[in-house]
Amino acid sequence: MLDQNQTPLLDALKANATRSHAPFYMPGHKQGKGISQPLADLLGKAVFRADLTELADLDNLFAPQGVIQQAQQLAAQAFGASQTWFLVNGSTCGVEAAILATCGAGDKIILPRNVHSSAIAGLILSGAIPIFLNPEYDSVLDIAHSITPTAVESALQQHPDAKAVLTVYPTYYGVCGDLKAIANIAHQYNIPLLVDEAHGAHFSFHPQLPTPALAADADLTVQSIHKVLGAMTQASMLHIQGNRIDSDRISKALQLLQSTSPSYILLASLDAARQQMALHGKMLMSQTLQLAEEARTKISQLPGLSVLSPPYQGGLGGSPGFVALDKTRLTVTVSNLGLTGFTADEILDEKFAVTAEFPSQQHLTFIISLGNTAADIHQLVQGFTILAKEYRPTNATVKNYILQDFSTTFGTNLCLSVREAFFAASEILPLAKTCDRICAEIVCPYPPGIPALMPGELITKPVLDYLQQIQAMGGSISGCNDTSLKTLKVVK
Asked: Helices 341-352 and 374-390: crossing angle, nearest 10°?
């Protein structure tokens, strides 16, 4: 067993940052001596002293043999992996690397239609052919959950030559599907299960949280340590176990996708976050769960408000697409107050200084993490308390564009491969003239970054209506050339 008290990378960075010497290497600001004064006033000088390059004592991210290797080995043990890679380009590059390492041009990969845009980028880079599955959809709440084991099994029966299955666990709403069953099915076909676990890095550290992906027999998982734990923004990890994934292909893929000038501040924050959770994770998660439960209980008692809770008794109820919920993720339904999530978000932010992770048509979703305090929860509850008084429940709920059926709005069949459409000759047309044309770009309501359209898909009226409605409610559109949504890029 390794000593989880150690922080080899953090210690090496500290030693080099405080060493007196004449630096004739990158970066140009030379440990803050040449940094802009306004930036130094904001951040202080200490952070710039630690902004170092690949010095001999700091190891090399792409060929680690020293402190980075030691830090990654400690992380592998803490998170239950056989091997771990540190990521400085976020979970995005981890998901892309997972696809590149398992699929080549023309290979099939099974994945949910509500996958993050990083997976679509992975399809473009690899040339893999997606076999999209519709997730289980709750039409009452207008929330897409996980794909089901039955859907995965049916897809593999139809496509036994698929090279991998990729799923999202948990979803942005904290919903977890039956990952263990999906892993068993994938392994029956001797192919790996890849998991976008960007929002589940904390699962390993408390028994009241959902089962971690690796403990559910996933072969590879990508975690955003910065999203719910204590690493800095953009710092993530990729973990593997078993023998279905070629570790050398992962390393080579990451060399293509990660910066050759990685931030050692980000890398050291991964080392520090791992130590923090390995030593104090259960205590920190107990405190976080307690705060989340307080918020959940108090808000659910307010008139006109409800929270997504396990097991959800309306709509789908218990189901293979919703077997567990991360209770640190709080989704509040506000539509019975006659408000959209976008409007409620603006009110809470402007009047009560309460800022959600993201709004949607009927809901607001909040991430409650180890960095939140009792004062934060009090402010959150107070904001909703006043909101519920000012906007009393009404039988006439907000007129939202609610997806009557996920599959009728979002397509799962491509007219062209994602890669072929992305690189095809294209033209830009007014939105009204794009119906029944093939999309040539990624179009995402953001967050959570789930593409409503992707290259190769047929543009339909339901999806155009959905995008316009999101925009009219105050949501933003990203990924495409014209974020005002007046035009779209289509294949010629």
From this structure: 120
**Whether the Cβ atoms of residue 208 and residue 289 lie closer than 8 Å to each other:** yes
For the chain, what's the residue count? 492
The residue behind tokens 């005002």 is: 484
How confident is residue 408, by pLDDT bands cut at 50, 70 and 90? Answer: low
**Please, which residues have CB within 8 angstroms of residue 86's CB and are 6 or more apart in sequence?**
61, 68, 71, 72, 75, 235, 237, 267, 270
Is a pLDDT exceeding 70 seen at residue 316?
no
- Report if pTM > 0.70: yes
**How big is the CA angle at 131 (ends 128 and 135), to the nearest 5 degrees?**
130
DSSP SS3 for 72? helix
Q: What single-letter amino acid sits at 396?
A: A
Average per-residue pLDDT in the chain? 93
238, 87 in Cβ contact below 8 A? yes
Contact 154, 134 (CB under 8 A): no
Q: Which amino acid is at 262?
A: P
| Structure token digits, residue 408 | 């009728």
The structure tokens 């679509």 sit at: 120
